[in-house]
Design brief:
Order of helices and strands: EHEEHEEEEHEHEH
Distance between the termini: 40 Å
Pfam family, one: Peptidase_C15
Protein name: Pyrrolidone-carboxylate peptidase
CATH topology: Aminopeptidase
Radius of gyration: 16 Å
Helix content: 25-40%
Low-confidence stretches: 4-12
Largest sheet: 7 strands, mixed
Mean pLDDT: 93
Strand content: 15-25%
Oligomer: single chain
Number of helices: 5
Enzyme class: hydrolase
Family: Belongs to the peptidase C15 family.
Strand order of the largest sheet: 2-3-1-4-9-5-8
Keywords: Cytoplasm, Hydrolase, Protease, Thiol protease
Structural class: alpha/beta
Number of domains: 1
C-alpha cells in the first residue's frame, strides 16, 4: 500500500528520503529490512524527511511499487534495504546487474533464470550513493559495515538495478539512490545484527548520504 499524502510525516514538505524494505520471504517470519525501514519512518535527516514503504519480494511487482512511490513522492534520495542472511555487516551495494537468476522462488512462485531485468538495458548500473562516506560514518558509529561488490541475482539486485534504471530514464536532476543489505536478526540465524545496532548504523549512513554530495576515497575493495 502506498503512503497516502495526508498520512505522511508533518515534515513531509521537506525533501523526501524514500526508505524501502521487503516483506518476509523464504520461510522467514520477519524481514529485518522492513523492521529497519519502519524504525526510521518520519526521521528528520539533514533537512529531509524519511518516508518508509514496503516492497513485495516479487519480481516485476517490486519495481512497479517502487515506480509508483517515485511518482508520488519524488524523493531526493532513495535507499532500498534487503535481507542478506549469512552476511555479518550492513552491506552498502556498489552495483546492480541486469539479470534475474533466482535460486529460490519469489513470494508469487516465480523463479526466473538468466533473464534480463530491462531488455536491451545496460549490463549494470553503479549506485549513486556516496558509498565510502556512508561506510566511514557507519564504522565510526561502532556498527559493522562493508562495501559489497554484488547484490546477488534475486529480488534485491532486481530492485537495485530497476531503481537505477528508473533514475537514469525518469529521475529528475539530483535524485540519487542505492541499496543496503541487512544481516539476519538474532534468532533468525548467524551471523546476525541486533535491530538497534542496524538502526543506529543506517541513521548515520543516511546522514552521510545527504551531506556528502561527492564521495570520499577510502579503500573498501575485494580480492575475490
Amino acid at each position: 500500500m502506498l503512503p497516502h499524502p495526508h498520512h505522511l510525516p508533518s515534515g513531509a514538505s521537506n525533501p523526501v528520503i524514500l526508505l524501502t524494505g521487503f516483506d518476509p520471504f523464504g520461510g522467514d517470519a520477519v524481514n529485518p529490512s522492513w523492521l529497519l525501514a519502519q524504525a526510521l519512518q518520519g526521521q528528520a535527516i539533514g533537512g529531509h524527511t524519511v518516508v518508509s514503504a514496503q516492497l513485495p519480494t516479487v519480481f516485476g511487482q517490486a519495481l512497479e511499487r517502487l515506480a509508483a512511490l517515485h511518482r508520488q513522492l519524488r524523493p531526493a534520495l532513495t535507499v532500498c534495504l534487503g535481507q542478506a542472511g549469512g552476511r555479518a555487516a550492513l552491506s552498502i551495494e556498489r552495483i546492480g546487474i541486469n539479470v534475474d537468476d533466482a535460486r529460490i522462488p519469489d513470494n508469487r512462485g516465480a523463479q526466473p533464470i538468466d533473464q534480463a531485468i530491462v531488455p536491451d538495458g545496460p549490463a549494470a548500473y553503479f549506485a549513486s550513493l556516496p558509498i565510502k562516506a556512508m561506510l566511514r560514518a557507519v564504522l565510526r558509529a561502532g556498527v559493522p559495515c562493508e562495501v559489497s561488490q554484488t547484490a546477488g541475482t534475486f529480488v534485491c539486485n532486481h530492485v537495485l538495478y530497476g531503481l537505477m534504471h528508473l533514475l537514469a530514464t525518469e529521475g529528475a536532476a539530483g535524485m540519487r539512490g542505492g541499496f543496503v543489505h541487512v544481516p539476519w536478526l538474532p534468532g533468525q540465524g548467524t551471523p546476525s545484527l541486533p535491530l538497534r545496532d542496524a538502526v543506529r548504523g543506517l541513521h548515520q549512513a543516511l546522514w552521510a548520504a545527504v551531506l556528502a554530495r561527492q564521495d570520499i576515497a577510502l579503500g573498501a575493495g575485494a580480492t575475490h
